[in-house]
Specification:
This protein has 127 residues and is α/β, with parallel strands linked by helices. The protein is built from 5 helices and 5 strands, in the order E-H-E-H-E-H-E-H-E-H. The protein has a 5-stranded parallel beta sheet with strand order 2-1-3-4-5, sandwiched between helices.
C-alpha cells in the first residue's frame, strides 16, 4: 500500500521524563508520524514557534512552566490557538481531566499510556 499521498503529521511530545518521552516517540514514530521533543514548558513554547506542530502531547507536571500554563499561552496566541493539545499526564485524580480541558486541552490521556490506543487517539484530533 502506498501512503505517499497521506500527510506526515508533526507531533510535539512535551515531557520532562525521558522514559515517558521515549515510549511515546517509539510508539508513534513506528506509525510514520514526525516527532519532536521538548523537556519543559519553556522548551515547549520555543519548539512550537519553530516546528509548528500539528498536535502537541503535553505533560502537566513540567519544570519552569507547567503544562496547564503552556497550554493557556498557546491558546491565547492566534498563531497557535488551533493546534490541538492533548494532556498526557499521571495526574489522574478527580477533577484533573476537567482542569486540563479548562486550560484548553482537546483531550486527556492518563499515564501509564495504553500503547495500543495512543495512535488512534492522536490521529482522531488530526482529521
Amino acid at each position: 500500500m502506498d501512503n505517499r499521498d497521506e500527510p506526515v503529521w508533526k507531533i510535539l511530545v512535551v515531557d520532562d521524563n525521558l522514559d515517558s518521552r521515549e515510549l511515546v516517540v517509539k510508539v508513534l514514530g513506528r506509525r510514520g508520524l514526525e516527532l519532536y521533543e521538548a523537556v519543559d514548558g519553556e522548551d515547549a513554547l520555543a519548539q512550537v514557534a519553530g516546528v509548528r506542530p500539528d498536535l502537541i502531547l503535553m505533560d502537566i507536571s513540567l519544570p519552569r512552566i507547567d503544562g496547564y500554563e503552556v497550554t493557556r499561552r498557546l491558546k491565547q496566541d492566534p498563531r497557535f490557538a488551533a493546534i490541538p493539545v492533548i494532556a498526557l499526564t499521571a495526574h489522574a485524580m478527580k477533577g484533573d481531566r476537567e482542569k486540563a480541558l479548562a486550560a484548553g486541552c482537546a483531550d486527556y490521556i492518563s499515564k501509564p499510556i495504553n500503547i495500543h490506543t495512543l495512535y488512534d487517539r492522536v490521529v482522531s484530533h488530526l482529521r
